[in-house]
Sequence to fold (241 residues):
Amino acid sequence: MANLATAQKVAVRATWGSDLSARAEAFKLSRADLDAAITATDNWIELNAAAFNLALPLVARTNLTAAQKAELFMRVAQKRYGG
Amino acid sequence: MASANTLATFLPYQNEPPAANYATLDTRNGQPVLDFDGSTSETTIFSCIAPSNYAAGGFTCILHIAFTSATTGNAVFACSVERGSTDMDADSFAAASQGTVAANGTSGIETQLTVAIATMDSIVAGDHFRLKVDRLPADVSDDIATDAELRSIEVRET
Fold:
């Protein structure tokens, strides 16, 4: 899967910015720093997606859709780190 | 009126939002604020009558601004005026003047941004006028990705 397009990264920033504002959560990154973090995260996912897929049990690997695997990853990561 | 005297004050509940991309009315600890998005340029508008002792000088707008989440960085706001002598069915704001405001290290503490409006649209005492305030998140100096909160505006004669 290709990396996110610029417009998609901007959408991530905009959506997250709105969510942070709605929660009135302290946030110290500048827009440029946030953009760099989004790009780095996207790059890391691109590099490690295959390894994550291989780490899944066979039944999950073969029966979950790509979107479901992404949601699984997001939910576990969020639970681990306080989301 | 002497220079630097207050001509008008504007509070969030007085705002006349445009049809689209308007600053959103919100409260923070029960205090009304207008939220300006960190990605999309949003606008608020206020109406007033220029006081009878207004000497037709410039307007200096003092914007009282806090930030919902940011504790560092800058935001850019623009102010412009429209003399109420034109067709109400179309906006005719004069050229805007802008300024940059830095976030306080505590997001709930406001910072004051002073913007001197350079183009006054020939407003004189007794005129109905409108003041428009835009946040400009696409400006290179605006680096805060989250909301700015406008608490109030004081307009002084320059």
